[in-house]
Amino acid sequence: MSVQAATESSLLAKALPSCVDSDQVFNEPWEAKAFAIIVNMAQDGHFTWGEWVETFSKEVAVATEIEAAGGQPKTYYEQWLDAAEKLMASKGVVSKEQLAAKRFAIGAVGPTRVMT
Amino acid sequence: MTTTTNATGTASRKVPVTILTGFLGAGKTTLLNRILTERHGERIAVIENEFGEEGVDNDLVLTSDAEQIIEMNNGCICCNVRGDLLMILGELRERREAEPGSFDRIIIETTGLADPAPVAQTFFLDEDIASYYTLDAIVTVVDAKHANSQLDQFHEAQEQVGFADRILLSKSDLVSDPERADIKKRLVQMNPRAPISQVNFGNTPISDLIDIGGFSLQSVLEIEPGFLEEEEHEHDESVHSFVFTSKRPFNEARLQRFFRTAIAEYSANMMRYKGIVAFDSLDHRVVFQGVHMMMGSELGRPWLADEPRVSKLVFIGRELPKDHFMAQLEQCLV
């Protein structure tokens, strides 16, 4: 196994949900896409896996707090997506404006009917 | 936007696809044969819906003999795709992967009676197809001689005009100048965003058919000049269009709610819609487009300092409640 392949597979192992019967399995194609994008971007060096874990944990903590206070609960991959958007914006991969523009249609038709 | 990254990490362009529609006898095959014999250096695969009287002369012709409409399992009556196309496009992909360079693009010639929506939606609703192919445009051939009677009689003919990104007027040498002008006027009323050009005996430059960017969000939204001044309607069309413009910016949440409600209720009749929008919350244009229940949006260029921030939205559809839409849109302004 090459060095690169070894790194990639260990990154994937870290990223893959450990327990398959939780809500971490993919329920919608966009969830798998969001997952793959983050793994790919970490591989390509846009951020380290540690940075991702930190951003994602913060997002989960905030969402848990909101839900505990009676707010709208979010699924595992909704939290994943929110964290992904924040990290990408902070790394300058996308701008807040680009995200806002994309969200316009997604909010109107839902994630499975978006034309790209 | 049409660049994708394959497994080996190298960037590769998606294969562009043109849908060629038009009513029976409009001259699709004649046009296609002219295009295919032109020396343009493009290797074109052709998917035909049927064997016409006149065959297509090309190395790579695939035929789908049964129009197979598949309803997508997402609870929407207008979200259907063409099963026969899914299969052929899958086969073509395998062939191209085994033999790179076997073709650069695809032209799909539909039957005269085909509804363009399921053909177009195949390129957006199926993930595998969407990742490999990109729909460039729907080009509709209209027979100038028989257009009026066909448009009066067949709703399929109206749909093909409504869906078009570009209209090619054939046999226009067979009608008088005033007749031609009348037909053009009628077509513009139905679809103000499709430029109309004339073809004689299939003679048209390939650029009228390919790389039109009809489904590209960033392509310029051109409304046929003169459309907005037209008031009288000589024909009572079921397929029609209207444009909403405003110098006041939109509130994003309100406009999003408008689309959510409009699409929930009227998506089956909303054939094509597209626009450039100014939001009070953004210094960039936002561009969007939709086909029935599918919609996409993207950030456009920043508004220039001395540029009026004019939003422009065009709707093309079947029996759409224009006044209701216009009033609702007005409510979404800041």
- The end-to-end span of chain A amounts to 37 Å
Radius of gyration of CA atoms of chain B, rounded to a whole number:
20 Å
Share in helix of chain A: 55-70%
Overall pLDDT confidence of chain B: 86
Biggest sheet strand line-up of chain B: 5-4-8-3-9-10-11
Biggest protein-protein contact in the assembly: A-B, 19 and 32 residues
Integer-rounded radius of gyration of chain A: 15 Å
- The overall pLDDT of chain A, averaged over residues, is 84
Number of beta-strand segments of chain A:
0
Strand content of chain B: 25-35%
Unreliable stretches of chain B: 1-11
Describe the structure.
The complex is a heterodimer of chains A (116) and B (334). Chain A has 116 residues and is mainly α. Chain A contains five helices and no strands. Chain A has helices at residues 3-15, 29-43, 49-68, 76-90, 96-109. The longest helix of chain A has 20 residues, at 49-68. The radius of gyration of chain A is 15 Å and the shape is globular. The N and C termini of chain A lie far apart (37 Å). The model of chain B is unreliable at 1-11 (pLDDT under 50). In chain B, a hairpin with a 5-residue loop joins β1 (3-5) and β2 (11-13). In chain B, 43% of the residues are buried. By secondary structure, chain B is of the alpha/beta class. The longest helix of chain B is centred in the first third of the chain and has 16 residues, at 83-98. The radius of gyration of chain B is 20 Å and the shape is globular. Chain B contains nine helices and 16 strands. Chain B has helices at residues 28-37, 83-98, 116-125, 127-132, 147-153, 155-163, 177-190, 252-266, 322-331, and strands spanning 3-5, 11-13, 15-22, 44-48, 61-63, 69-71, 80-82, 105-109, 133-143, 166-170, 196-199, 239-246, 270-278, 284-291, 294-302, 311-318. In chain B, the strands form four sheets. Chain B has a seven-stranded parallel sheet, sandwiched between helices. Chain B has a five-stranded antiparallel sheet with strand order 12-16-13-14-15.
